[in-house]
């Protein structure tokens, strides 16, 4: 995923455009949610360990 600010967040592996478009897009959405959930948990874990300015800039903000 790439934000308008050019911030990049990689999606999970193994996504292929096959089958019904509705099912494939559903899998893309699931992958987006899972990726952002994982990155958010990681960011929360880092919050206590880093200076706030560093924490904000080193984690995705999409």
Automatic annotation (TrEMBL):
GO biological process: microtubule-based movement
InterPro entries: DHC, Dynein_heavy_linker, Dynein_linker_3
Pfam families per record: DHC_N2
Source species, domain of life: Eukaryota
Coiled coil: none
GO cellular component: dynein complex
GO molecular function, a single term: dynein intermediate chain binding
Position of the signal peptide: none
Protein name per UniProt: Dynein heavy chain 6, axonemal
Naturally occurring in which organism (per UniProt): Paramuricea clavata
């Amino acid at each position: 995923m790439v934000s308008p600010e050019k911030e990049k967040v990689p999606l999970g592996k193994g996504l292929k455009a096959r089958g019904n478009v509705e099912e494939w897009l559903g899998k893309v959405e699931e992958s987006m949610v899972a990726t952002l959930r994982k990155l958010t948990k990681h960011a929360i874990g880092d919050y206590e360990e880093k200076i706030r300015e560093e924490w904000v800039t080193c984690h995705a903000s999409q």
